[in-house]
Please model this.
Amino acid sequence: MYFSSDGGQTVYHATIISDVTNNDIKFCAHTTGRKDKKLSEVLGNETVVIVRLNDRI
Model:
């Protein structure tokens, strides 16, 4: 998952999604030391870009 401040044209921070529930997405990040942080608690006017990685090789 990436954060963007220009509508998704460029991204400035990468994170890893740790859990998805019916109500929220939780993520981990190293810059601010976040572990299982709810996206709804930190999302302001930013855009989130989610890239799904294939789980098969």
